[in-house]
Amino acid sequence: MSELHSFAPGRVELLGNHTDYNAGVVLSAAIQMGIHARGSRRDDGKIVLSSEGIEGCATADLAAGLKPGGAWADYPLGTVEMLRQAGAPVGGFEARFAAELPPGAGLSSSAALEVATAVLVTKLFPFAVSPLDLAKICRRAENEFVGVSCGLLDQVSSIFGRRDHVVFLDCREESVEPVPFPPSLGLLIVHSGVKHALTGGEYNERRDQCFEAAKRMGVPALRDVSSAQVAAAGLPALVGRRAAHITGENERVFAALTALRNGDGDTFGRLMTASHRSSMENFENSTPELDSLVEIAIRQDGCHGARLTGGGFGGAIVALVDLEAEGRISGAITSEYLEKTGNLAKVYPCRASDGALAA
Question: Top-level CATH class of 4-180?
Fold first, then answer.
């Protein structure tokens, strides 16, 4: 068999911050940057993996069983293991990966690596699997093999992305819907220069606080209550702020769906900025650098709104801008941010793009 190719895009989270593990709703978009994989079968039962920019190869023997080794190769190897457990007839192969995603920006390079692997492997060893089940297999790789607790958003975004559409994910129902994105608008992803560093402790602490709020309110998840109910519940102050962020995000996602269907970029942008304010005040997962970038971005003519994207604690913001103003806004953000913080921001103009299965 000749060499085959796959591509899986990264994603940008537009609204719905930390709602996934609270059975909530999220809006995201696949972007044009991602991870390429090229590979071919081997007849010796071995898996040989290499990545552009990383010296050497990672090798595993299917006969000996696949086990995590604490390196980048755990993501593709975990995906292979979960495919095998799902019944895929995976044999030996070699694969080379090349990434276009900026490191530490919170654009979900790990999910893109899993999805690129899954698509390549199911081409090399044909296996019928639905797109949603493929996303779940990739999530299992991250949860069970790599050992990182995550929801389904990243894998769904990489698989279900559609050009000029955003992805609406209902995490409770595990349903996915593409929603048209206004053609006159673009997305600027602006890296703060501070690497995305969502530690297990910070993530788990906020997760536990959300679960505590739901338990105190007598509901299965914060998806089941409104912001007004949270405000009236008499929760401990910190737990109440965490819960207010989640319920507010769910409400902003539903409001944004209406705005997008009406082609209303102004309202969508205001909801994004309100989301960032909640991250600052309620969830406390922003940083001074991200706050500065949002403040600078929303001052620019042609910018409708901005917020941190991804887990927070560094990484990048996403700004909703008029396409015709992209260049001017990018230059203004870069120069003003450098003057204010001494850090060099990197700006990536992005488009809502096709997912890994588009071809």
Answer: alpha beta
Is 154 a known active-site residue? Answer: yes
Q: Which residue has the tokens 């081997």?
A: 42
Classify residue 189 as exposed, middle or buried by CB count within 10 Å of its CB (0-12, 13-18, 19+).
Answer: buried
**Domain extents for the chain?**
4-180
Selected catalytic residue, list 154, 208, 264, 266: 154
Which of 287, 288, 111, 313 shows the shortest CA–CA distance to 119?
A: 111
pLDDT along the chain (359 residues), means of 10: 92 96 96 97 97 92 95 97 98 97 82 97 97 97 90 94 97 96 96 70 88 98 98 98 98 98 96 98 96 98 96 91 98 98 95 88
Are 32 and 9 in contact by the 8 Å Cβ rule? The answer is yes
Q: Which two tokens stand for residue 329?
A: 């806004």
What are the structure tokens assigned to 75, written together? 């993501």
pLDDT score at 271: 98
- Closest CA relative to residue 312, chosen from 290, 344, 340: 290
Cβ neighbours of 306 (radius 10 Å) = 28
Question: Are the C-beta atoms of residues 191 and 346 closer than 8 Å to each other?
Answer: yes
Q: Report how far residue 265's alpha carbon sits from residue 267's, in angstroms, rounded to the nearest whole number.
A: 6
